[in-house]
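Section 4.2 – Deliverable D4.2 (structural model, holo form)

The reporting period included a commitment to supply a predicted holo structure for the target in complex with magnesium ion. Inputs used:
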Amino acid sequence: MKAQALVFMGAPGAGKGTQARKVATEFAIPHISTGEILREAVAGGAPLGLAAKEKMDAGMLVPDAIMCKIVEERVSREDCRNGFILDGFPRTLGQARFMDEMLQRQDRMRLLVLNLQVEPVLLMKRLTGRRTCPVCGRIYNMFFNPPANDSVCDLDRARLIERADDKEDAIRHRLAAYDRDTSPLIDYYEDRGVLHNVNGSRDPEAIAKELHGFLRTA
Ligand code: AP5
Ligand code: MG
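Output (structure tokens):
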């Protein structure tokens, strides 16, 4: 795979984190999840976390100015020189335009957008059933891929956690924010010829296999 900026797009629960983690390992490039960066700031009590927590818990988007600054700082680091994966950014037209300018400045790195398309009826179950390992970041699902023991990670035995925004009310707001603010980016990237749609309703291994084959030659 050439050095490029890979963007994982898709509704909440589409499987962005699940697939981005695998691609990052396979191609040895950093996986940058803006949701994860915000959750770490919340957990660590950083000023950024204090500003973002209320919005996140309610399922609303954090303002563009904050998100663009975070991403610009992160991708300017040395480990992103040979490419990187963005998961959860951009998710507004303002963020997409900012990223276009940023990539122009950064040696005109090529952009490829992977859009995980998932049947909406699956999303609620994926989100309410999600559990995450706070130590290794592995993502489980109590309905679709449960851990061997209900409450601990198979790999490091850490107690699994449930995200604060995986409550039905917040999920509804997140899905609405996706439809309103993020789904217009599909046309935006299609018009630029950088969009690749992936059927994300299949099992995770089938999706990973397709992505691997596609990215090897991309
Ligand atoms: P973020 O963390 O990005 O959340 P999200 O977009 O709502 O997406 P999720 O992480 O919930 O889903 P995912 O697609 O990663 O799915 P996953 O792989 O975990 O953002 C959180 C919040 O931060 C936002 O609401 C906002 O407030 C703020 N924020 C972040 N970025 C921002 C930005 N750029 N601008 C403004 N605000 C921002 O999978 C979900 C579940 O399904 C898991 O249980 C998994 O095991 C399971 N699963 C995955 N794939 C499959 C499959 N193929 N089959 C069956 N189950 C599957
Ligand atoms: Mg995620």
